[in-house]
């Protein structure tokens, strides 16, 4: 009988211990940088999130009772490496904030929902309807593509998801039209510059021809002067 009571007491102890342990390990607030750090290969994006303080803003929104969830498109380090040299350094602090915000949707979207969204999607950088921050998504089967008017990216896979946050890996940094639309068209005038150089060279050749003509004119002028002088001298002798 004593053994039975001891056994029951031991079982009750284990039961309450499990409950206490479970409560102690309750998940804490969702943290975007912690999610990305655990996933790896997002060093540059994490650095931007922290330097712009967008990480704090995202975490505050995620853990707000009124939050509708967030969707984050996370470019890999390789995506940042493929950017033109100096791209990030050329941005102002405000533009860096907008660049990060352009990767965040103010609602939670699951993979199946990408097939039914209405374009352009609204990002935290601004409304895509005004043509400055358009973000369009097309979905075919399991493949999801994103276009910004500057770049086209592919959603590689799901990095993290819960009831408040969905993080998706993208293979390109999403460059908004408002900041990179003109720069993307900048290389176009290059042939015109090349044409100007060619035209200038042709003009230079013409300039060289004018120089030759002027030298001939000088020789003719001096010849005429010499002839006139000789005639004048002959007249004196006569």
TrEMBL record:
Domain of life from the UniProt record: Eukaryota
GO cellular component terms attached to this protein's record: plasma membrane; side of membrane
GO BP annotations listed: plant-type secondary cell wall biogenesis
Signal sequence, start to end: 1-24
Topology of this chain in the membrane: Lipid-anchor; GPI-anchor
Similarity comment: family membership: Belongs to the fasciclin-like AGP family.
Function recorded in the entry: May be a cell surface adhesion protein.
PANTHER family (alphabetical): FAS1 DOMAIN-CONTAINING PROTEIN, FASCICLIN-LIKE ARABINOGALACTAN PROTEIN
Protein name per its UniProtKB record: FAS1 domain-containing protein
Lineage, opening ranks: Eukaryota, Viridiplantae, Streptophyta, Embryophyta, Tracheophyta
